[in-house]
Amino acid sequence: MNATVTPRYRQVKELIIRRISSGELQPRDRVPSENELVDATGVSRMTANRALRELNDEGYVERIAGVGTFVADFKAASHVLEVRNIAAEIERRGHTHSAIVLFSAQAPGDAAAAAALNIAADAPLSCVRIVHQESGLPIQLEDRYVVPDFAPDFLRQDFRITTPSAYLSSVSPLQEAEHVVRAQMPDAFTKKNLEMSDQEPCLVVTRRTWAHGNPVSFARLYHPGSRFELSGHYTPPGTKTSERHPATGETEND
Length: 254
What we know:
alpha+beta; Arc Repressor Mutant, subunit A; Chorismate lyase; 7 helices; elongated
């Protein structure tokens, strides 16, 4: 059986993505032009154009007519659906984030994780289980599964200091995210680690993220119902944004 050959345009894309992921190319740095890519890689002008065009469409770079192509400033991007770093959220509230790592190893994930990541049920994944605390009070139990090839050093990180979301975002810009939210009664393990009362429900956020066109991470995030809420604000295109009080929802014009 012949091995699958990666198309040349995709090879060029991966070359640039690797330079961005490694930090060689920083946000707002100039990316090689079509002519420079032709000279450096030997591909055709059409192939170089397609690679840059797709990188632009996927959010890795910004193409400015008559000026050049530049690495996108990912930190400045804002999306309706955000992949949030819980440590940063806690710090914005003026509180202290801490974490307890309960499990960290390479092992097969469960059936749902394998299906979400499009891998065989017995394929190894980088798995962590972490309790995130806000000023000493448990607020999130995180079960995280990561494709090893995407982040080979994932399990070498000290997740008491950095969160999995923050580290994965530093490895490579995430292209796409999917969130599913549901309420359920916790099992004994979750209830114990989140210090929940017997009749308290938990809010579960299931998160799947993509990079390089493939799903690379799957997580279940459990939260005590009495200590967590999800919020968001949406303004339709063309509508003037009002000044809104976070707690009451009242606007300056009310």
